[in-house]
Structure formats: C-alpha cells, structure tokens
Amino acid sequence: MGAMVDYETRTRRFTRAEYEKLIGLGVFQPGEAIELIGGELMVAEPQGAPHYTAIRKTARALEAAFGPGWDVRTQGPIGLDDESEPEPDVAVVPGAPDDYARAHPSRPVLTVEVAESSLALDRQHKGSLYARAGLPDYWVLNLVDRVLEVYREPVADSTAPFGWRYGRGEVLDASARVVPLAAPGSSIPVSQLLP
Amino acid sequence: MRQGERPGLRRWTRHEYERLMDHGFLDEDDPVELLDGLLLVKEPQHRRHRTAVLLVARAVERAFGEGWFVQTQSPIILDDRSEPEPDVCVVRGSPRDYVDAHPMRPALIVEIAQTGLRLTRGRKAAAYARARIADYWIVNLIDRVLEVHREPARPGPAGRHWGYAAIEALGADATITPLAAPTASVRVADLLP
C-alpha cells in the first residue's frame, strides 16, 4: 500500500474477504450504503434528488453509447483489490449481468462517480485508488460546478493516498462532448449527463 | 487532516463491535479499541510505556486503598459507540462487580503517552470529557510530566465538542491528589519510568 495521509491514528482495516463475510453475517444494517476503500469502511453520503437523477441520466447515456455486449451497473460492487470493494455510481463492464452472478466484476472499462459534497474524496482518495487498480477511464460528474472531469492514464505518485494518480485530467463543461475510451465510435454530450 | 474530519468513515456501535469479537474478527492479537465508533489500532508498546503502566497502577492502588480496584488496559464502557481500553483506570467496588458488564464510570483514567500524545490529548480527551470522566491524567513520557485534565466542558479546544476546562502539567517534583481520593497524595516521580 502507498503512503497514507497522516491521521491521528490508524483504524482497523478490513480485507475484501472479511468485508464480504461481514455482509454475509448480516452485521451491517439493511440498506446501509457502505464501501470498502483501501481497507477502510466508508459510508456513502445520503443521496439528494440531483445526485440520483445524474446517476440515471449517466447510466442511460452510457447504455446508448456502449450498446450490446456491455453492462452498465449503477452503485454495484466492484471487486477492485484485496482491500477494496467500492460501489461506484456508474460502472461499465464487459458482458451481461449473468457473467457476474458468482463474483463481482473487477475491472470496469469506465467508472463514474457523481459528486456534490464528496468532490475531494472522489478526486483524490478514490481517484488514487482507481488509478492504482489501473482503471483506464474515470469520470467525476461534478454537480457543484456542472462539469465533467475526465481522468485517464494512471501514473505512480508516492505522494498520492494509494501511491497512484491519474496523469491526465480534463474538465468538460455542459457544451462539450465526451468519448469513452472503450466506446471510441460514440460521442456523448456532457449536458446529457447533468441533472 | 484529523480523523474526525474524515468524510464518511463508517462508525461502529458497541453492539456491532461485540459481534465482531464474537465472530472472530477481533481477538487478542488484534489490539483495537472502540472510540467514537472508530476501531482504533493501538500503537505497539515501548518498554517504557509498559513500565509506566505498572508504576501508575501500583501508585494509584496505594492512593485509593480499600473499596476501589485498579484495572490496566481493560475495556470500559463510555457510551454506545465507545469501549476504550485505558492504560490504567480506578473503579469503585471489586472485580466481581463487573463479571457481567464492563465498568462504566471510572473515578480516574490514566493514559501513558509516548507516540500517542495527539490522540490522548485530542480524541480521547474529548470522549472522556463527554462521558463526564472527572479526573483524566496523561503521563507524558516525552516531556516527563503528568498532565492533569479536569472539569469536563463543552465546547472543548480545537473545535472539538467536548474537552477539559482545567489542564495542568506537573513536573516530576510535584505531587497530585486524585479527586476521588482527597486525602491521598501521589508523587509524579513515582509514575515516571
């Protein structure tokens, strides 16, 4: 694991296997929105109407852009690494839902987080984690500034929370269009994603 | 960035914490304590820390005498989300009174701090103050002083919701009288390794 931010002290970390066992034992409250991020259990922020609307719009736009042969998942678990099982707002994975009946997908070709109050967390903390896992295309749909932040090309960086970050970041406003790396023939107006 | 400012770390209740232990997620080899719902990993103990624990336990046992007992690095219950294991604490009664449940309101809590000064002065002090622990001491091994924290009050320092209004640092040549043992006198020198 990369250098961690200097906190007052450390909390007990969980492996993904432990996390899945805890879920199986019913230790968490039903419906509790939690994610395992670098061994830490994080609670998702409560969702406002704009946040959820953005998720639905993004999912529909990506379904249209990717077409058959891809599954667009919303807030579904990703088996990212031994200490991480995030639930990104939207993730595009190859295949169909049945392909993941036994194990969560681990390498989405496109990962999207919709961010209001969680901007810093999504950019730095999750961005570093996703970069470490080599996720090639990471979008932060920034509802505060009404822009889409597109992150690509993971590079090692010992100062990042998990030792990696995205080497390229591009900010697209509502008038721009975006082309997913894994769907090069498509082109999505950013306005189609924003609530 | 302090941990308390971290967005979104999931907090555990005491009930869930006990389930973690029942299911074998936490055991003797997993030095963890529950504070404010966070599973804090205890720092590895230096020999001086261990020596100070023993010295403090012996000194406060003498000071309090009959009707009290001293427990070291054992759980106490502060609230629904806190079950810390202070280095030393003084509890009314006898160990048999607590067969079924951990003690809740120690008359005195003492933490030994070497690497963990920030934690003992910060999050732990806030949690103890919130639980109205009247007498909280930190044996500061770095500066070789005893920090006596009294008068739980809100708001506390550094933006915390709770803290202690009266904090005094005593050197090795001083003596201290525990609030709950008003006739006793403990030499700070006897607490330092």
Structure description:
The complex is a heterodimer of chains A (195) and B (193). Chain A is α+β, with helices and mostly antiparallel strands and 195 residues long. Chain A has a single domain, classed as tt1808, chain A (Alpha-Beta Complex), CATH 3.90.1570.10. Chain A has three helices and ten strands; from the N terminus they run H-E-E-H-E-E-E-H-E-E-E-E-E. Chain A has a six-stranded mixed sheet with strand order 3-4-5-6-7-8, sandwiched between helices. Chain A has a two-stranded antiparallel ribbon with strand order 1-2. In chain A, strand 6 and strand 7 form a beta hairpin. Chain B has 193 residues and is an alpha+beta fold. Chain B has one domain: tt1808, chain A. In chain B, 21% of the residues lie in helices and 26% in strands. In chain B, the strands form three sheets. In chain B, strands 3-4-5-6-7-8 form a six-stranded mixed sheet. Chains A and B meet through helix 1 and strand 2 of A and helix 1, strand 2 and helix 3 of B.
Oligomeric category: heterodimer
Share of helix of chain B, binned:
10-25%
Binned, the helix content of chain A reads: 10-25%
CATH class of chain B: Alpha Beta
**Greatest interface and its participating residue counts:** A-B, 25 and 28 residues
Instruction: State the separation between the terminal residues of chain B, measured CA to CA.
Output: 33 Å
The CATH C-level name of chain A is Alpha Beta
Mean pLDDT level of chain B: 91
Number of domains of chain A: 1
Tell me the CATH architecture of chain B: Alpha-Beta Complex
Q: How far is the first residue's CA from the last residue's CA of chain A?
A: 37 Å
- List how many beta strands of chain B DSSP finds: 10
Q: Which consecutive residue ranges of chain B, at least 5 long each, have pLDDT under 50?
A: 1-5
Number of domains of chain B: 1
